[in-house]
Amino acid sequence: MDVYDNPKYYDIAFSFRDIAKEVDFLEQIIKNESLIPVKTVLEIASGNSPHMSELCRRGYDYVGLEQNEEMIEYSTKTIEDLGLKAEIIRGDLRNFRTNKQADCALLFLGSFYVTDDHELQSHMDSVAHSVRGGGLYFLDGAVLFFPEDFGIQTWEMERDGVKVITTYDPKWIDERNGLSDARIILEIEENGEKKVIEHTETRKLYRINDFIAKAEATSKWEHVSDFSDFDAAKKPYPGGRNITVLRRRI
After folding, report:
1. What is the CATH number of the domain that holds 189?
2. Which of 19, 194, 206, 220 minimizes the number of CB atoms within 10 Å of its CB?
């Protein structure tokens, strides 16, 4: 069973994030580096859209791009329940189009599912088509800053009596070319019962300098800066939630 087919457990597994702090960071970098005012935000591979409510609360229009049907239904229900000015559109991050351009794009938690340079090029072109010139593109955990960050991670979260132990276990398929497989395992305890959900995902993991070079080679993007832990004063370090920021060329 696919982890992404279970948004409730996925939501609990990744609930360690301080969403308000993360949005504070986004707003600070937008203020400092965006060349355009931001009203509409596009989240790519939006999943269960954990930032959606906070962004809407602060006055932004939210558009999520997602291809998993369960995640789309989960986020759509949140929109309906809370009456948010938001929408979720179905699409593949490797090649997509939006109905109107956003002012900023976001990608969180390494949800950067490209497997070769052709898919990277197509993705960067798709985002460029969907973001106005001067707007920023934030990528959280999408590229490899430090070799030692490639390794197994395990953590435990609990909410409303449901415990979820998450394991992220990546292995190189072809290290020279950056191609990897990663198993995501959710061990769930709920109402005295235990179950395990897991799947494997394949992607090409770009080193930061290689990624920047390829992004800038499109002539549509320029590198702005890199940060860690959603803190504008912190630079990337081993073990951090490292973030790179690009800007759409005008």
Report:
1. 2.20.25.110
2. 194
Q: Which domain holds residue 220?
A: 13-143+206-248
How do residues 143-196 score in pLDDT, each as one tens digit? 999 999 999 999 999 999 999 999 999 999 999 999 999 999 999 999 999 999
Residue 63 placed within a domain: yes
- 80 phi and psi angles, rounded to 5 deg: -70, -45
In a domain, 4, yes or no: no
Tell me, what amino acid is at 26? Answer: L
Distances (CA, A) of 187 to 2, 11, 202: 13, 14, 21
Sheet holding 179-190, edge to edge: 153-159, 162-174, 179-190, 193-204
Whether residue 220 lies inside any domain: the answer is: yes
Position of tokens 């798709």? 126
